[in-house]
Input
Amino acid sequence: MIALNLIPKEQKIALRNTRLYEAIKESLTLLFLFATIIATLLWVSRYYLEKELVDLAIANATFIASNASTDKKISELNARIQTISNVQANFISNRRLLEDLSLLAPTNVAYQEIHVYRQQNLVELTGSARTRNDLVDFKNQLSIINWIKSVDLPMASLIDKENNDFIIRLELNPTKLPQL
Output
């Protein structure tokens, strides 16, 4: 095959440079176009991701706030359950104590009120006795019971000979209290 060079050498170089310039120009245009498209996509994705991050932060704050209130409610409930457990564990029934006190009362002595103060180990009996001797006998009966430490009968209750109203305070011995 024969190659004919009909174009002068300077024009050949100029033509080659022109083609090279056009190719480089096209390549740079395409590169700039791709860079612009990628930059736009990155900017849009950054905007979208920032929006999602803000939404997640708001949702997280809401979730934490709701969890904090739930935690507070659970803590309050646990405290109540603990209090109830303590009360139930330390509970001593007054039934046997009240039964024993009712059996001790002679026929001429009647109770109007019985107050039991567990923390102070104190029982307060309010009532009336037909005679002073009935009231003194009742006080003496209470004094000999082993689960009663002391019996306090004010002297004002012994002034009248008949129909004596009284308030007797019994200090209890908690280790010897009647159990169920």
The helical segments are 9-90, 95-104, 132-143. The longest strand covers residues 162-172.
